[in-house]
Design a protein that fits this description.
Helix content: 25-40%
Strand order of the largest sheet: 2-1-3
Radius of gyration: 28 Å
Number of helices: 4
Structural class: alpha+beta
Largest sheet: 3 strands, antiparallel
Distance between the termini: 54 Å
Length: 157
């Protein structure tokens, strides 16, 4: 028979299949084994299994005391930080070309810009799709400004 191993808060820790006589070997201290026949229920409350409703979004946590999803500011801050980090390091399209815009690429662009500003000419620049384009100092400056503007927009949002 299938049993749900339930912790003190009603969370299903795992599902085991065993004889009732073997349940004691599968149930840690402070937990209980309850006959389980639902594949879609994931919480135990008031002597019955319930299905936790879908999470409203990734900024919520399940409150095992009140049995509701509650907003969590720490999760919100964490995900905003992660999303911003991805955006800051994502590629950028300028004048129809897609450039890598991570910190290392931006640093290389700035170095090349300084060099080309002094000596002139063009540099063969590798794009995000591994193709190449020739860029002058003015072209590099346009890309650098676009990356900087995007960074400011993300940081000040």
């Amino acid at each position: 028979m299938k049993y749900a191993i339930i912790d003190k808060d009603g969370n299903i820790k795992r599902i085991v299949t065993c004889q009732e006589s073997d349940l004691v070997h599968n149930t840690p201290d402070g937990h209980k084994g309850i006959p389980f026949e639902y594949d879609t229920h994931d919480y135990y409350y008031n002597d019955g299994f319930i299905k936790i409703p879908d999470m409203p979004d990734r900024h919520y946590v399940w409150d095992t005391t009140n049995h509701v999803w509650t907003y969590n500011q720490e999760l919100y801050d964490y995900w905003i930080k992660q999303d911003n980090k991805k955006l800051l390091n994502s590629n950028i399209v300028v004048s129809g070309y897609e450039y890598q815009a991570d910190t290392k690429s931006l640093s290389a662009m700035m170095t090349q810009y300084q060099l080309l500003s002094i000596v002139g000419g063009v540099v063969k620049w590798k794009l995000a799709d591994n193709s190449f384009v020739e860029l002058s100092a003015e072209d590099l400056l346009e890309v650098i400004k676009a990356i900087s503007a995007r960074t400011q927009k993300i940081i000040s949002a």
